[in-house]
Amino acid sequence: METVMELFKELDWSPLFISLKTGAAATFVSFFLGIFAARKAVRASGGKKAVLDGILTLPMVLPPTAAGFFLLLLFSRRRPLGSFLYEQFDFKVVQTWLGCVIAATVIAFPLMYRNARAAFEQIDVNLVYAGRTLGMSETEIFWRVVVPSAGPGIASGTVLTFARALGEYGATSMLAGNIPGKTGTISQKIAMVIQDGDYLTAGIWVGVVIVIALAIVILMNLISGKRMKTVKRW
Amino acid sequence: MSLSVNVKKRFPDFSLDVRFESSASRIGILGASGCGKSMTLKCIAGIETPDQGEILLGPRVMYRSADRICVKPQKRNIGYLFQNYALFPTMTVAKNVGAGLKGSRRQKEERVREMLHTFQLEGLEERLPGELSGGQQQRVALARIMAYEPEVILLDEPFSALDQFLKDRLQQELYEMLEAYAGTVILVSHDRDEIYRFSEELLVMDRGRVITGGKTRELFADPGYLEAARLTGCKNFSRVQRTGAHRMEALDWGIGLQCKREIPGNIAYVGFRAHEFVPVWGEKKENCIRFRLAGSAELPFEKNFYILPENEQARENLCWFLQKDKWELLREKGLPDYLELPESRLLFLTG
To answer: In chain B, N or C terminus with fewer CB closer than 10 Å?
Structure first.
């Protein structure tokens, strides 16, 4: 027991903050991108929709390392785009916190997109028609009618996105690496200490992750549960 | 305000080809479900775009395929009352009513207050649509439409999902609220009573086309077409053979019918409403049938008899509906010997 307390005192908490920051940033970006993409997908028709949906969903079904491979292809400084960004804008992605965010965003984005899309598709289309005949602009209809009506779906999408971004490992380790204090997220920390056989430290971090994840999911359920009191329980 | 519609729209299993013109202020469109009447309304409102044609509202062109004009629904100034009212579920009553308003915040608030007052919604401003009764929802929906003063209001089967009692109440309420409205109102329904009660002029639609139109009362009295007669509630039909200017054979009933009116040359069917039979005891008159009772059903306020004419050719059951106050007669005298089809009540129909 004392060793655990000892460990707690000496523990470097940076992975926690890096993970939370990464998760929050990735969720923020995915939130808007996901809603935007979902709107496009719902309004697209037929074949275009199928292709668009396939591409947007791909990161969810691909192994994260495959996503990492593509991200490296894009952003590595030995590649055209990566070197261009670095030389023109001093913009570094590989081995930086930005890399963490980009990796987590790419992997978690489909969860936001798919949940938002499902929620939009379930909206009574007459609401949109009514908005139009009432003279509301398409943008106004979307933000004032569609998004609020899709509230629960969007909320759960946000939760899942955050949870997924928080735990991202594969693509992150390839793109951002595991630099302590900079890109060392909790999941990378766990993998690293396990390799050293340090099950105690790994266990502590696993505990931390479980607590955060559970707390956020419960919190969001409470919030969306309160807002959706008109929905019947069954 | 005159309305002129001439549109075509193809669907995989159905095609819409609607043409009509009307300057009546209360227009009804009667048709069975799936006949394209809602689609017609959606084209007028601009929610759906026809493949070709033209829609004119007074002098304004709403749609004209030849000139590639298609005014957005936002700019048409046409109100649409949906069957489920389509109130925005996350907005309060006041926000719903003000949703489409333009102008300064003060102006909007003023207008919303006015509408809430007119439609007796005061005290419900902060409620969500889910917390309202059906009648209140209808008032909110109408207030929301009226708030921006549309030139035309389209009512898309507003009562078809309601139980009978609520339906009567809400119909009455809606028609009262619309009384003060000077613009054009179009009601679409499959319910002949609703249409009869509401509309000055009537269009009858069948399989994507307007088959006939005219003044509602005249059209109910003389529908002219088989399908129109059916939709206006006529129950009995027979193919006919015209044997003279004033004589025809009702083939499916196996009887000859005499008329003082001249029978049109293109007559294909004769129709007869179930309430119009006159029971005859004793001597046979003109246009009378002997019949056998095939079945009967008692309803709260009327009795339905299903009868088969007594002759070789007859193959169709006829419906004879009798109001409750006339049952007494039957109880006294028993079933009549004959049923008379008064010639003035015969409907001359073409296919």
So the answer is: C
Banded model confidence at residue A233, pLDDT cuts 50, 70, 90: low
Is B9 buried (19+), middle (13-18) or exposed (0-12) by CB count in 10 A? buried
Asked if A104 and A134 touch (Cβ cutoff 8 Å), the reply is no
Are B88 and A127 a contacting pair at CB < 8 A?
Answer: yes
pTM reported for the whole predicted model: 0.78
CB B83, CB B93: distance < 8 Å: no
| pLDDT given for residue A28 in this prediction | 93
DSSP B126-140: T--GGGS-HHHHHHH
Please give the C-alpha separations between residue A1 and each of A6, A173, A199, A203, in angstroms, as whole numbers.
9, 32, 14, 14
Q: Is A145 exposed, middle or buried (0-12, 13-18, 19+ CB in 10 A)?
A: buried
Span B97-126, mean pLDDT?
A: 85
With cut-offs at 50, 70 and 90, classify the pLDDT of residue A2: low
Give B161-204 pLDDT, tens digit per residue: 777 887 888 888 888 888 888 889 999 988 888 888 888 899 99
Cβ neighbours of A154 in B, within 8 Å: none
Q: B73 contacts in A (CB within 8 Å)?
A: 129, 132-133
Whether the CB-CB separation of B25 and B31 falls below 8 Å is answered with: no
State which residue of chain B sits closest to A150, comparing Cα positions: B90
Residues of chain A contacting residue B145, judged by C-beta atoms under 8 Å apart: 134
* Chain centroid to CA B33: 11
Q: CA triplet A40, A43, A47: central angle to 5 degrees?
A: 90
In the block, tokens 């590639």 appear at B68
Distance in angstroms (rounded) separating the CA atoms of residues A102 and A87: 19
Question: Residue A14's pLDDT is what?
Answer: 82
> CB contact, 8 Å: B149 with chain A?
no
* B28-41 pLDDT tens trace: 999 888 888 888 99
DSSP conformation class of B322: E
- Looking at the complex, does the CB of residue A151 fall below 8 Å from at least one CB of chain B? yes
**How does pLDDT run across A148-182, given as a tens digit for each residue?**
888 888 888 888 888 888 888 888 877 777 777 77
Task: Walk me through the domains of chain A, giving residue ranges and CATH numbers.
Answer: 17-184 (1.10.3720.10)
**Amino acid at residue number B37:** K
What tens digit of pLDDT does each residue of A33-90 get?
A: 999 988 888 888 878 888 888 888 888 888 888 888 887 887 777 777 767 777 777 7
Q: Is pLDDT of A231 > 60?
A: no
Domains and CATH numbers, chain B: 3-223 (3.40.50.300), 234-349 (no CATH)
> Are the beta carbons of A129 and B47 separated by less than 8 Å?
yes
Q: What is B98-158 written as a DSSP string?
A: HTT--S-HHHHHHHHHHHHHHTT-TT-TT--GGGS-HHHHHHHHHHHHHTT--SEEEEEST
A-to-B residue pairs, Cβ atoms closer than 8 angstroms: 71
Cα–Cα distance list, A194 to A81, B17, B187 (Å)? 36, 73, 72
What distance in Å separates residue B317's CA from the closest CA in chain A? 43
User: What letter would DSSP give residue B225?
Assistant: B
